[in-house]
């Protein structure tokens, strides 16, 4: 009996110890954050010097596994000498950058000489062998494109891999035979947790094997997810979801699960006013270190599968912005509607009006009640000579949300307006159109929406949404 109690108290201590480390890391994160990434996107030439710098440090083993179609080196980094092997890869989709940045934060954590985490790191490196391929699709990343140079979605190329990047992933997996695999992606930032008003900041999935019964690989993935979700919930209560578990026979996650790789899909979602996903990146850092700790200490094995089932699925019940109770006018008729707007995930597209009408059962990551205001489409102006920033802002304040460049006028694309090539044909269309909007009260223009921004004309303020 006494031994039993000692065991129990030891387990409690271990659990506390682990959660304390993650809690401390939450506060110490800035120490390890890789400072050289300044944009939302991250490209191969930004990670190359960081990988090169690992060569000077004994704890890392570096291997250039192959080059991409455009001759960019794809590296595999190994650290730790433990029996339990884990494998992480990021940016299989070139426009999904968040986890790549978090991986370099993690490498900084292992590089650091911070005494507070010394024994924790030693235990991880003794128990685990950690294999990491950051940015498996560098050619896609270079142009912020989901697909590779062949325009192939690598995550549909697992059955009989054709692209060099897919071959690297498959052969690395077969060589490593990991106990756990982490498939790191980004998802739309406006997914919600079930039908709630909370954004899905992080979504997990233990991919299916396509079989009716679960294999041991899927069971241990689910158990680890239960632990990770609980731990993360301290920092972002209610913002954790489960990704759709539909079986996709051509995807790597599903195939690796079949092969026993203990696959965990982590999707980086959205957080209010976190356009560059800095906070989501921090959550990636925490949850991946938490996972390493949980695997090293075997603390996931007691988790109840029922708790996995209770994690709500992702849903698209959110818009990035909802304008509530605005009036729109058509052919002399005025009605009141809500307008749901989504910002673009990539720079190539503009902000889109996703839906219009009664959106009372939807949520906006940002919402404004514009009762009494009128919304109409922005105007466009032909520019026949170059204009300075001040003049362009004056045009914007007068409702000109786009410009058409004539007579070879060249302007850099950092102007407040969208550049278009011809005059819009109708002033009355909203649905699925670019969200270039004027919001006015009586005849006075009060707000302008263009390019993921709201301008408060009266106060001269700009807000990202
Ligand atoms: Zn993806």
Assign the CATH topology of the largest domain. Answer: Aminopeptidase
* CATH class descriptor of the largest domain: Alpha Beta
Number of helices: 11
Overall strand count: 22
Name of the CATH homologous superfamily of the largest domain: Zn peptidases
Strand order of the main beta sheet, please? 1-2-4-3-5-9-7-8
Provide the residue-averaged pLDDT: 91
What CATH architecture label of the largest domain applies?
3-Layer(aba) Sandwich
Helical content band = 25-40%
Radius of gyration: 25 Å
Q: What's the overall geometry? A: globular
Which structural class should the secondary elements be placed in? Answer: alpha/beta
Distance between the termini: 59 Å
Unreliable stretches, pLDDT < 50, 5 or more residues?
1-16
Let me know the largest β-sheet. Answer: 8 strands, mixed
In this entry the ligands are:
zinc ion
Strand content: 25-35%
How many domain units? 2
